[in-house]
Amino acid sequence: MLSNSVYIPNELFFAEVQAQIRQGKKVKIRVRGNSMLPFIRNNDEALLIPPTPEKIRKGTPVVAQTDELGIVLHRIHRIDGNRITLLGDGNINQFEHTSPERVIAVVSHYYRGKQTLRTDSLGMRIVGRLWMAAHPWRRKVLTLAWKVKRTFATLWMT
Fold first, then answer.
1. CB 39, CB 85: distance < 8 Å
2. How far apart, in whole angstroms, are the C-alpha atoms of residue 142 and residue 92?
3. Would you say the pTM of this structure is higher than 0.85?
4. CA-to-CA separations, 107 to 68, 130, 143, in angstroms, rounded
5. How many other CB atoms sit within 10 Å of the CB of residue 135?
6. What are the angstrom distances between the C-alpha of 27 and each of 20, 136, 151?
7. What is the pLDDT of residues 28-59, one digit of tens each?
8. Helix (H) or strand (E) holding 143
9. Quick count: other Cβ atoms within 10 Å of Cβ 30?
C-alpha cells in the first residue's frame, strides 16, 4: 500500500462523485478491476461526465448503481424501456440491471499512461459494438489474444 493513498468505501466515494457530477462537473477516477478488459484495464483512469438521455445508449460505458453488484463501470448492453442491462467487456454471463435514473455518470474518455481514448469516437463506437456482438465468443477471443501476445513477447525476448 502506498503511504500517500487513502482508501474509502465505494458507496462514500461514489456519493461524492455523484454530487460533483450533478453539479455539472467532470470527475476523473482510477478504475479498479478487470471486468472491462480488453478496453479499460485495472489502474486506467476514466473521465466521467453527467449522464444525459442522448448519451445513455447501447454501447456506452457508464457508472451505475445496479440491482446485483452495487456500483459498477460497465457497458450498456441493452435498453428495454426503463430497464438497462449492463455487461462488462470482460464478462460473458454476468449481466447487471439498472434504470436511467440510477446511471451516475457516462465515461467520456479513458487514459492509459500517455494514451487518451474517447469512448464516443467513431472507431471506439465501432470496436465496442463489434465486441458486444462477439459476446458469446469473448472468452475465446481474449484467451487467444493473450496467448498470441505472450508468444510474441517470448519470441521478442529470446
1. no
2. 11
3. no
4. 21, 19, 26
5. 14
6. 7, 33, 38
7. 999 999 889 888 999 999 999 999 999 999 99
8. helix 138-157
9. 10
